[in-house]
Amino acid sequence: MTQKSDGTTVGLDEATAHFVTLDTYKNLQGGLGAAASETATVITFKDLWQAAEHPDNNSSLIASIQADKTQAARFAALLRSMAEFSQPAQAAAATSNIEKRVGADFDLELKSSSRQDGAYFLIIRMHKQTEITPQHLYYCHNNNYNFITLSAVHNGVSQVMISEANPVIDAFNDPTAEFFIK
Amino acid sequence: MSNISYKLLHKLALQNDGPSPFLMAVLTSIIEATTIDGRARHGAQAQQNLITAIASHSYAKVLFPLCHFMAAGAQHHVPLYQWFSMPQPMTASNIAACFRAANNQTTPSHSINKIDSMVISITNGNYIFDVNLGHVAKHSALLDLIMEIIGYDALETLYGKLGVSQSRHEITTVSNNLARDIYSFLKEHLPTASSEKKARMMRDFLETQTGQMTQISPDEIDDRLILDFWIEYSPDPQSKFRLFTNCAQSWVTYRQAIRLAARNRFQHANSLEAPDEKGRAEIDRADQDAAQAMYDEMVETVDSSDQLQQINPSHLQTVKLLNATEFDHINQIVQFGDDGQALILTILRLATFGPLQARLVEASRKKTMRDDLLADLDDLDAYDAAITRIETAMNTVQGLTEAAAFSLYVSRAPAFLSAALSLADATEQTAVRDSAAAFKAGLTKPVDTNQLAETISKALLDQVPELMPALFERMQNARKKFRRKGLGKPPEAEFDLWVTELANGIESLRGLLPVLGRLVHNNTALTRLKADHDSLQNCFCEDKDMFCTQFNQIYGAAS
After folding, report:
1. Measuring CA to CA, which residue among B153, B155, B129, B130 is closest to residue B142?
2. Per-residue pLDDT tens over the stretch B426-468
3. Alpha carbon distance B155, B152 (integer Å)
4. What is the CATH number of the domain that holds A128?
5. Could you tell me the end-to-end alpha-carbon distance of chain B, in angstroms, rounded to an integer?
6. Which residues does chain A have within 8 Å of residue B25's beta carbon, measured at their own beta carbons?
7. Are B19 and A33 within 8 A, CB to CB?
8. Which of the ends of chain B has fewer CB neighbours closer than 10 A, N or C?
9. Of A10, A29, A76, the CB nearest to B262
10. Domain boundary among B189, B208, B231
11. Dist. CA A153–CA A133, nearest whole Å
C-alpha cells in the first residue's frame, strides 16, 4: 500500500536518535500552540524591566517579585545595574537615628518639617552630573524593594516631602539599606 | 461517525511527559516578545532556531559565538540589560548600532578593529576574534532563554568576567558553564524519557521486522508495519502506543527522522571553535544547515498546522470559515504532511477507528461502556466514506478560499486584489498586471504613490469579471455553496477586523491546499484504493475484526 520514496537509507540508531529530537521538537511546537491558556505564569526579565522602569504602574508586580527570593535577587541586580547613582549599605551607625547618609554618588538627608506636623523632607544631593533626569529613588530594606518618585532636580538637589509613616524613614535609619537613583 | 471526538483524541494524545509548563511559559514569552512599537523582538529564524537548538540539544556550539558577542558587548561597556531591552528588534544592524553608540560614548577597554554592518573584529592582546552579528541575530532568542534560565544576577556576573577575559580559554570556560546550566535546566524541564522509551520500542520492533538489518528507509515504515506495531504494543498499559493515533503519528515522525538523518547535517563536520571569521561563517552555515534541515522537514507539516490554527473557529471573531468538525478533521490529516500519501490506509484507519477508540477511552474512564459503541462500524463502506470525507475536506478548503475572496470583492476591499491574484490562473494574473500597467502608462501627471495604488485598486475592482472571468465564476459559485458567518454582507461594525480576518483566512486556507492536494490528487495509492471497491470493503472488514479484537483486549468485553 505504500508509494516508493527516494530510496533514502540510514542507520537504525541514527534514525532513532533523530526521532527523539523530532518528537521533542513536536512536543515543544505543540505546547507553544496551547501555551496561551494552559501554561504557568512566570516572571520574566521583561517583567523585571517593566517593574524597574515604571514602578508607579507595577506595584503588584513588584510585590510578586519580592515574594520570590530568586526573582528578588535578579531584580536587585537589575536595579543596581540600571541605577544612575547608588549608595550601598553604610558602616554601622553609632546611634539608631542617622541624620545624613553620605555616599560617593549622592547624600541623603532627612529633616522634619518646621511645622511639626509629622511631615519630613528627604533631601537628595547628587554629586555628579547626569544626562538623564532622575525619576525614582529606589531602596532595598529588609530584602524589600520600594521607591519614591523624585521631584524636579535643581542644582543636583531634589527634595521630597514624606509622612512620618513612610517606610523610607526606617530604610534611611538602617545602615544596611541600599539606595539607588535612576 | 458524525459526532467524531477529535478534540478528545487530541487531548489524549497530548498526555505525555513533555515540556514543563514553566518551560512553555518561558518559551512563549520569548517568542511573543515585542519591541515598544509592537514588532517581534526576534525574527522568525531566531524563534525557529531556539526551538531547534533545545530539541536537538545543539545549543553548546551556538553558545560559543554568543559568549564572544557578550564579551565584545561587555568590553564596549554596553550594560547587559541593554541587549534585553532594545527598543528595536534584534537584527544585525540594530545590534551593530548599539555597538556604534557605545563606541562613541566610551573608550572600550580592548581594541576594536572595525564595526561594519555584520561583523565586529576585536583584538584582545594576542587573541583576535570576530563577532558575526548576523549569527547573533539568528540566535537572539536563545540569548533570552539564557537570561531566563541563569537570571540577571548570575548572567551579569558572567558578563563581567567576559568583559575582562584575556584569552579564548576564559570565554570557552564561560560558554561551557552556560551549556551545563542549560543542560541541567532542560533535564528538569524538558524530560525526553518518554520519547526515548518510544524510540527504543520502535527501534527494536524495526530491527525484528527487518531481520536485524541495521539500515532503514522510510518505505519500510508502511501501513502494515504501523498496524502490526500497534497490535503488539497497545495492550501494554504503560505503553505510549495505546492510542492508534499516537502510534500512527509517532511512525510519521520516524519516517521524517530517517530523511532528516539521511541529510546528516546535525553531525556536520566543522571546526566549531574556529575563532576567525571564516570559522564563524562555517559555524553559522553549519548551524543554519542544521536548522534548515529540521525546518525543511517540518515546515510543511508545521506550517500547515500553523496555518490551520490561524482559522481556528474558536479564535476568529467576525467570520467562521471552517466549522469545528471540519477543523479537527483537517488538523488530523495535515499532521501526516506528505507522508500521508504513502500512509493513506493508516489515515483511513485513523479516521475510522481513532474516534471510536476515543469514545471507548472516555466510556472506560466514566465506566459507561455500552454495546452500541461499535454500531458505527456496521457500514461496510466506512473506508469509502472516509475517503469521501478527505476529498470533501479538500473541496471545502478550496471553496471557502474562493467564497472568502468573493466576500472581499463584494465589500470592495483592496485586500481582495492580492488574494485574487493568488487564486487566479496565469492568464488572469497577466491580465490584471497588464491592466494596472496600462492605467499607470495613461497618467498625464505625477500622482502620490498611495493615491495611485488606491485609484488602480478601484479601477481593477471594477474590471474583475472581465479580467478574471474563471475565478469570478468560481467565487460566485463558492459563495452560493458556503453560507457561513462573515461570508455575506460586510459587517457595519468591526469592518477592518473583518477584512483582516478574511484576508488572513484566505492565506491560511491557501496554505493548506498543497498538502491536501498532494494527498487527494495524483496519489496512486488513493487512486488504487478507490478503483477497487470490493478490495476496500474487504480491507475494512479485516481491519474491523482486528481493531475490535484489539479494543476488546484493551478495554474489556463491552467493546
Report:
1. B155
2. 999 999 999 988 888 887 777 777 788 888 888 889 999 999 9
3. 5
4. 2.40.30
5. 17
6. 35, 39-42
7. no
8. N
9. A10
10. B189
11. 8
